[in-house]
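Hello,

I think I submitted the glycine job twice by accident. Can you confirm which output corresponds to this input? Input:
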Amino acid sequence: MKVLIIGSGGREHAIAWSVSKSKRVDKIYCAPGNGGIAEIAECVNISAMEFNKLADFAQENNIDLTIIGMDDPLVGGIVDVFEERGLRVFGPRKNAAIIEGSKKFSKDLMKKYDIPTCNYETFNSPEEALLYLENANFPIVLKADGLALGKGVLICNNLQEAEAGVATIMLDRQFGEAGDTIVIEDFMTGREASVLCFCDGTNIKPMTSAQDHKRAKDGDEGLNTGGMGTFSPSPFYTDEIKKFCEEKIYKPTMDAMKAEGRDFVGILFVGLMMTEEGPRVLEYNARFGDPEAQVVLPRMKNDIIDVIDACIDGKLDEIELEFEDNAAVCVILASAGYPEHYDKGKLIKGLENFKGKDGYYVFHAGTKKTDEGIVTNGGRVLGITAKGSDLKEARKNAYEAVSWVDFENKYMRNDIGKAIDDIK
Ligand code: GLY
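Support: Only one job matched these inputs. Its output is below.
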């Protein structure tokens, strides 16, 4: 069969790699793709937001299945466009992707259906938000309602920071329309975990857990990024916590979406905070995490196409998800200056070192193929993933492998997986 993947990041490279292992797949296309995806798929020069052009391409090339990797096209309704044309596509429709597209929607959903999360208020005007903040407890969290490349979340330690945050989101409109509405919520403490779940509208099956590192600098300092590294599984996501989440969060979320007439088919990413009072939902996303996919998919034993087919056909109950009994760590190699200003076009050396190395992966994010070779083309450039028999070995292997590639202005965090050292 022929598969088209929509997106251009490390997540889409990990999806393409997983699809390439399926015996059922003869040909992979990726739109628009990147320099690394081009090694296993034919990259198509159509942007992820050109829904009709992408659907034309799928029709003209007899694509059997399209997998949407990115949030923007999902929230914009790409799945609806493909379905209207009778094309087989994997991802939530627009009316379900809103679970990621609007923080207000997701918080209201959790409140209505009693799904554990923290207290919050939403405001459409900066004046009302500022009035509320005058009597708030700090730290407090400000979130732009809409999509903001993972950067629309501000943690404010005092009233002054919160006032500046409201101005950033609602007056300076740093995140554009995403900041028309603001969600102000309690600050939660605990360990975070990301759990990606396959969903068929009725059934939901969680994959193995992971933990991201969102801040740019060591010690969780610096600005929020799309994610600087991950490990899987999270040793803090115990069987007891998993059971609680299955009963109180995952299934109730599926049921809530169904009850609202918004059946969710695709990947539901549940961002959890494991607080002293128990697990709470931090956020939902409507797609694989990036760089969570880069540590979860290499550990998955199932043929991804079988699982996706089961989701689309409403037969996920017939699938048993299986993961290897090992661990994986991903370290992101970024361009110095990310997530603010950084240079592009730097030649990447050493990519060939990953050829034939079992358990080591180089997933491309911001890269481009040129006549000179593969060059940097974004803030997050490569995700270096390594597996190991346990988390410590996987981390050692990943940090060894980051030295196999080099480019001018290469930047990484040196403490990905530091939480692993807290394991008793
Ligand atoms: N790594 C966080 C995300 O994918 O949103």
